[in-house]
Specification:
Radius of gyration: 19 Å
Largest sheet: 8 strands, mixed
Number of domains: 2
Length: 174
């Protein structure tokens, strides 16, 4: 696993920053981007003050907000160096979580003791898109004799726990 620090965290990484309320951003920062995001480095991680999160240059940085965040407002987030994960096509560092009750799914970075199936970030994005499409549409389920929620559970669970295509998994359900 790659080690991240102030010299490389901004190159093709995924990270979830935690919103911080009790940090006073210093007048003199370590770095200021051309879009006015400010960065302050510590030995354990990085503080970022910005009004934009999500896609940041070649990175995907999300903000775990305390609930009041609105886009285009400046917010301070903190991430440990160990919270950064590589975004590339060779390292499978992500898994998919599906909440069937709220019909929400998300990509999560692997945890140390995580043993379920892992994907590259781009593969996880493709699978996420397919899952959301099948949450919205119902017509595809007409070809099966199983109730749609049970069918979704079986198909989505198999889909996020293997490298099989969605079509392969659907065919297995027939």
């Amino acid at each position: 696993m790659k080690t991240y620090n102030q010299n490389n965290f901004f190159r093709h990484t995924f990270c979830k920053f935690q919103e911080v309320q009790d940090f006073e951003f210093p007048e003199k920062t370590h770095y200021k981007s051309k879009f006015n995001s400010k960065y302050f480095y510590t030995s354990t991680g990085v503080y970022r003050k910005s009004n934009h999160w999500g896609r940041v240059a070649n990175c995907r940085w999300k903000l775990n907000s305390n609930g009041n965040y609105k886009n285009q407002e400046n917010v301070i987030g903190f991430a440990k160096w160990t919270d950064f994960y590589p975004l590339n096509e060779s390292e499978k560092s992500f898994y998919i979580e599906v909440d069937f009750d709220s019909e929400i799914c998300k990509i999560e970075p692997k945890k140390e003791q995580y043993s379920n199936h892992l994907f590259t970030y781009s593969e996880a994005q493709k699978r996420l898109k397919n899952i959301y499409r099948l949450f919205k549409e119902n017509k595809w389920a007409n070809y099966f004799d199983t109730e749609i929620n049970e069918l979704r559970y079986k198909i989505f669970t198999a889909y996020i726990q293997s490298d099989k295509t969605l079509q392969q998994i659907k065919t297995e359900q027939e």
